[in-house]
Amino acid sequence: EDTLFRVHSFFFQRDSEFFRTLLANHGPASERNPVYLGGISIADFERFLGVLYPSHFSEHTASTVEEWTSILALATEWSFQTIRTLAIRELFPLASPVDKIVVGNRYGIPAWLKDAYVAVCARASALTDEEGEGLGLKEVIKISQMRQDVGRQG
């Protein structure tokens, strides 16, 4: 989004193989020779920086599923394992079963999936339009089939 951020490279290099390689190939970054991170929104990068450079080490500015998911996305893409682990931990109590299916599949968190599928299949209400859009057609069909299979057994 054509915005220049001035951040220390230390944590990026220390905690991320992605950035160690990127910065080694790029050479010294400067205002005239910035590291370009294509496809990353300002909001997502600021959320990520909020974890990397917290105001208070015991508190985080992120508090919603959307915010923690964007942090998880960047931590996964950039190989920040400790921040990925933090985002997964913080997301778990905030995420609905549908969120857990979407995020679990997208970012490789298989431990979330079984209980989330069971919760979605066991609930009385059908998926909402918004949930269906978030899950995608294949997941909606899979959940529909699971619900139908459970109905036949009961």
Describe the protein in words.
With 154 residues, this protein is mainly alpha-helical. It has two domains: 1-94, Potassium Channel Kv1.1, Chain A; 96-153, no CATH class. The protein is 62% helix and 0% strand. The chain has nine helices and no strands. Helix 3 crosses helix 4, helix 6 packs antiparallel against helix 7 and helix 7 (113-122) packs across helix 9. The longest helix has 17 residues, at 137-153. The radius of gyration is 19 Å and the shape is elongated. The N and C termini lie far apart (53 Å). The mean pLDDT is 91.
- Approximate strand percentage: under 5%
The CATH level-2 architecture of the largest domain is identified as: 2-Layer Sandwich
Biggest sheet descriptor: none
Domain unit count? 2
By CATH's scheme, which homologous superfamily of the largest domain applies? Potassium Channel Kv1.1, Chain A
Q: Shape, please?
A: elongated
Q: Count the DSSP helices.
A: 9
Protein name: BTB domain-containing protein
Pfam families: BTB (PF00651)
InterPro entries: BTB/POZ_dom, SKP1/BTB/POZ_sf
Domain BTB: 1-61
